[in-house]
UniProtKB/TrEMBL annotation:
PANTHER family: F-BOX ONLY PROTEIN 21, SI:DKEY-261L7.2. InterPro entries: SirB1_N (IPR032698). It comes from the Bacteria. It comes from Streptomyces yangpuensis. This is Transglutaminase-like domain-containing protein. Belongs to the UPF0162 family. Residues 24-133 form the Protein SirB1 N-terminal domain.
Length: 241
């Protein structure tokens, strides 16, 4: 799924290129030791390989690059956002048979090994540095592994956030929104965000129709908010004149 969404951003990422990316993940998994047992042993081995020998990690500058959210580019550059580096950790470790899971923290994403209650957690953005029970988010309550679709939605949210500060890349924001809306579970507010973006991009009629449709949904719980959204639709249609 990460490779398919990356293909929206990179026209050169065809089926053959996707195969190469998956072959690279297989290759990396084959470099791990055989027969490891226990979360800590797996965490150490994967971190020594990816964060140590191969140098996968992130830097503040990676937040300024769209490529940091594209899996094939992260594999090539060995740089990326926390969640994409975590995807590399996850996919390499899973291919090798490790008990591994993603863990979404507020504003960050990390990887756990073994039983989530053991708290063997590493930070791929920091090259796989162990988190132990340091952050408050890890120290309190059970650690619920992130679901695959939640990971994909979070990646798309990062892409939207990147594009939102760059009006010249509103097309990127649009396809990220549209892919998010295809997921079985997503915030209903994304429909409103897409409608407003369509209006901003000059698709006044389509955007107004989307605003009206979203207003119908909102009306079931908030009449005043629905009225404001319908007023936005009227204003959008007025721009056609």
């Amino acid at each position: 799924m990460c490779l398919l969404l990356a293909a929206e951003a990179d026209p050169e990422l065809d089926e053959r290129a996707m195969d190469r990316a998956q072959i690279e993940l297989d290759r990396l998994a084959g470099m791990l030791p055989y027969g490891l047992r226990g979360g800590r042993a797996w965490a150490t081995a994967v971190t020594e390989l990816l964060g140590g020998r191969l140098g996968f990690h992130g830097t503040p500058a990676d937040y300024e690059r769209l490529s940091s959210s594209l899996l094939h580019e992260v594999l090539r550059r060995r740089r990326g956002l926390p969640i994409l580096l975590s995807v590399v950790w996850l996919e390499v470790a899973r291919r090798a048979g490790a008990p591994v899971y993603g863990l979404g923290l507020p504003g960050h994403f990390v990887v756990g090994f073994g039983d989530p209650e053991e708290g063997v957690v590493v930070d791929p953005f920091a090259g796989g540095a162990s988190l132990g029970a340091g952050p408050a988010e890890l120290a309190s309550g059970p650690r619920t592994p992130a679901r695959t679709l939640d990971i994909v939605l979070r990646i798309l949210t990062n892409i939207r956030a990147w594009a939102s500060t760059r009006p010249e890349h509103s097309g990127v924001a649009l396809w990220a929104l549209e892919l998010s809306l295809l997921l079985p579970s997503h915030p209903a507010s994304l429909r409103y965000e897409r409608a407003r973006l369509l209006v901003e991009r000059g698709s006044f009629r389509e955007g107004a129709a989307e605003l009206d449709a979203y207003a119908e949904v909102v009306a079931a719980v908030d009449d005043d908010a629905a009225a404001r959204i319908r007023a936005e639709a009227v204003s959008a249609r007025a721009l056609l004149n």
